[in-house]
Design goal:
The chain is an alpha/beta fold. The protein has helices spanning 49-56, 74-82, 100-109, 115-128, 144-155, 174-189, 201-207, 225-232, 247-254, 275-284, 299-307; strands spanning 11-20, 23-33, 38-42, 64-69, 85-88, 162-166, 193-198, 210-215, 218-223, 236-241, 260-264, 267-272, 291-296.
């Protein structure tokens, strides 16, 4: 395929770094994105996700290392790469003075498409984004979910080989998020390669075939959601809830019942492969929580183990 690295990667980075003055936002990361997959960047604020995406999208030059996108060098071939990318920024930047349909048609003209082709493409994308009934409406009154779907539809005008989505569902309600996930899943089924940054763990599990967890400008872990859970967590988590301030008394009595015990202000988290057995053993030892819950481990457990629970501004 034209524009694919010899090793099959659409995006390949080696020792990639980005510095802003004395601050190093991205600290020498290695990664590969393969054709047809959904690849995710997961991490707290300031982890370096957006800085990496901006380098891949050819709008921010790298400071050091190697970066290849679609078999080309962003520093030399930026315009040629951008012509084959679709980019969905964190904030919608639609033209509020144009209608929904006009936002698609005007954007398509930037890629040199004929008026007839742009009209046809806009009709297809309106249907894909479930916005056909709002085609001639103004943009401003649209809901947040509709604006987000329009922004994604606009990014597909040029039939991109690689679609970059920076925090695609931030601020959306659950229904709008699930509809957006459905649209992105359909794109992947059609062969579009997706790169997604997100801080929603369920989103990463839903969308991503592989992902990296970034923290402090570095890659802390890489793998599929299932691989990361298997590597950094246990099969199940037993949550024991207590009256706040009393959970510490129970910790030494259950410490040997799990691979790891985490103490929170109102509960204990016991990481174990058999939550029900651990719960029975805790009860047998006289531990009496206010409530208990056995659940499967999730990417959130992995994320918090790798990056910590402290708030990052």
């Amino acid at each position: 395929m034209l524009g694919v690295e010899g090793d099959g990667a659409l995006v390949r980075a080696r020792g990639l770094s980005k510095r802003f003055g004395d601050f190093e936002a991205v600290k020498g990361i290695d990664l590969e994105v393969r054709p047809g997959e959904a690849f995710g960047f997961l991490g707290p604020n300031g982890a370096g996700k957006s800085s990496t995406m901006r380098m891949i999208s050819c709008v921010s030059p790298r400071t050091g290392g190697e970066l290849s996108v679609l078999g080309m060098d962003p520093g030399r071939d930026g315009p040629a790469i951008r012509a084959r990318l679709g980019v969905v920024p964190q904030q919608d930047n639609l033209d509020s003075e144009l209608t929904v349909r006009q936002n698609l048609q005007v954007y398509g003209r930037y890629f040199g498409m004929s008026k007839a082709h742009v009209r046809q493409k806009a009709t297809e994308l309106l249907e894909f984004a479930q916005l056909t009934e709002r085609a001639d409406a103004e943009v401003e009154p649209l809901s947040g979910g509709m604006k987000r779907r329009l922004t994604i539809a606009r990014s597909l005008v040029n039939d991109p080989e690689l679609l970059l989505l920076d925090e695609p569902t931030t601020g959306l309600d659950p229904q709008a998020r699930h509809l957006l996930w459905d649209r992105l899943f359909r794109l992947k089924q059609q062969g579009t390669t997706l790169i997604v940054t997100t801080h929603y763990m369920d989103e990463a599990e839903q969308l991503c075939d592989r992902l990296v967890v970034m923290d402090g400008g570095r890659i802390a872990a890489e793998g599929s959601p299932g691989e990361l859970i298997s590597r950094y967590s246990t099969r199940e988590v037993l949550e024991l809830r207590f009256t706040p301030g009393t959970q510490g008394e129970a910790e030494p009595r259950v410490a040997d019942l799990a691979d790891r015990v985490e103490v929170l202000p109102d509960r204990l988290l016991l990481y174990t492969d058999d939550g029900e057995s651990a719960l029975k053993a805790a009860h047998d030892r006289g531990v009496a929580p206010v409530s208990s819950l056995v659940r499967r481990s999730t990417l959130e457990d992995v994320f918090l183990r790798l990056t910590g629970r402290s708030l990052v501004d």
